[in-house]
Amino acid sequence: MASSLALLFFIPSFVLSSFCHALPREAVFDAADVLLDSGFVSMALTLEVVAERLLEQSPSATVFAPSDSAFKKSGQPSLDLLRFHLAPLPLTPSSLRLLSAGARIPTMLPGQSLTVTTSPSDRATSINNIKLTPSPIYDDGFLLVYGIDRFFDPNFQFNGQGPSSDSNSFCSAKNRTSGASDSFNRAIQTLKSGGYSAVASFLGMQLSGVAEPNGITVFAPADDSVMNRIGDFDQYPSFFRRHVVPCRFLWNDLVNFGDGFMLPTFLDGFSINITRSDGVLILNGVPVLFPDLFFNDRVVVHGVSDILVAQDETFQENQKNLFDPFEF
């Protein structure tokens, strides 16, 4: 089965800690100046016009800038088409190269995502079958801009072996070929190598070898978030229980849920409320930064910007501190 490594592996922690702040207007205009000097005149002018309406609503972003010839051929794009060329994530070249073909990248057009189409033999990163410039035209750590030779097609369909929902929205049991232990071990190794050691240790201690026909979904905060928010080791079990859903939900499944949809977790009485803000999926007030961070036939991991807390102040955590493996 395919898997996607974390985009977050290569993004500094200060980027995540500043998620509540908007991109400075100066950065957007600096990017437009660089685009102008690099021969992307049409996108440079367009970026200046839409900056306040689009980019300044997000703390970080990646812009995929079509060439002047693309503008000449297609004409001035609609606002929705421009949103489709903006991702609310700082996507570095290294992180993009780690994504498997079929991985989805959220955009600022609600409900629409881009698809990674890079094959192992490709030297350049490809999205929706369009190659990006090898390195960003502009990169200040929060805002990155790549060049592309034509506009992305919102109706693009990926025909490769990428992630698909397979009716997981209803958590239907499926026949699987690989062992549970092997599936968890691959997830654990991936997480350990990328700044998610706390989550990886939890999976290793509590879930490795467990056989669950419907799989699990983990919403994983990075180590910095975990260490800053919980101090006592005896808090760990209940903390992790709230981040694990007893069903395997890929990104395609999550975006199909309406606002207000509640996901049950393994912590009794704790649910995750799905909402949206400017095209970003929000879980109990916490944005999903990196969808399909890892996935195989039993485990899906999505990177979130912080730990999940109860929205209902009356919620009281169950005093049971250990996972019962038979729950899975």
Low-confidence stretches: 1-20, 162-170, 172-179, 317-328
Overall geometry comes to: globular
Q: What strand order characterises the main sheet?
A: 10-9-15-14-13-12-11
For the terminal residues, how far apart are their CA atoms?
21 Å
Discrete helix count: 11
CATH topology of the largest domain: FAS1 domain
Average per-residue pLDDT, rounded, comes to 76
Domains, number:
2
The structure class reads alpha+beta
Q: What's the CATH C level of the largest domain?
A: Mainly Beta
The biggest beta sheet is recorded as: 7 strands, mixed
General description of the model:
This protein is an alpha+beta fold and 328 residues long. The protein folds into 2 domains: 7-148, Roll (FAS1 domain); 169-309 and 316-327, Roll (FAS1 domain), CATH 2.30.180.10. Helices cover 26% and strands 20% of the residues. Strands 10-9-15-14-13-12-11 form a 7-stranded mixed β-sheet. A 4-stranded mixed β-sheet has the order 2-1-8-7. Residues 1-17 form the signal peptide. Keywords: Signal. InterPro entries: FAS1_dom_sf (IPR036378), FAS1_domain (IPR000782), Fasciclin-like_AGP (IPR052806).
